[in-house]
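Morning run. Coffee first, then this:
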Amino acid sequence: MPENYPKKEFAKKQAVFKCKILNVKKPEIIKVDDQFAKNLGAKDLKNLKQLTNKQIENQYKMSLEELSKENILNQLETMHDVQLPDNLVQQELTVISQNLAKEDKEKNKKESEKIAKKRIKLGLILNELGEKNSLKVDEQEIKNEIQKQVQSMPNQQKQVLEYYQKNPSATASLRGSIYEEKIINLIRQKSKQTKKTISLREADIFARYGGEEFVALLQYNSKDQLIQYIKRVKEIVTSHKFKYKDLKLDITFSAGCDIRSNHDNYSDTIHKADELLYE
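And here it is:
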């Protein structure tokens, strides 16, 4: 057993595991048809492709909006000098470091304090802007946002609704996010907008695809360039020491990739990359 095994009496000792094989399965090629689409919550295959394309477009739009939001927040922090209440900073610091091991808390103390102060400062500034402009979040806006989440998760509508019904803190957090977004949108409306050419890497989109799988839409002109990029990512992931509390985690990495121009739409491209993942 590893040296950092949670139960110290078993650490650095040999272990024998007795396992019973319940069944043996082999991978099968999934037929992408209307039934496959229905299993994912779509009406048919055509509808699934439309939903996938719309989701990717929305992800791209969200990436651009996040870049804009980050720039706005950075400028707000730079432009204003705010005296921060120490108790609020300490509360935020506790939230940031609550899942860190003791040695990690000490190691990251300065960085955590910096993040805590930035969050509190921006929170106070945004709240002041919201109050001055009489911005509010009503119940209908919260319901609309929950409905958006329901629509983005086919076959999980009931779980999403129950989650917010049973967790008032989640609803409060959602209200805060909507309030913040309204303030950011107000700033965008009142600001002078200029067009900016962003780098290829800034245009990349990275999102969770399901379970332990992720999908990345990258701006490359050839498959060789794409493969080199994936190799670099694999090297970074596999060489990183992942840790949860006192337990060291061994992470493996595999990927499948294809070029968008080789297919009629994003849905087919992602499906092909998913197939290549298991070859």
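The chain has ten helices and four strands. Good start to the day.
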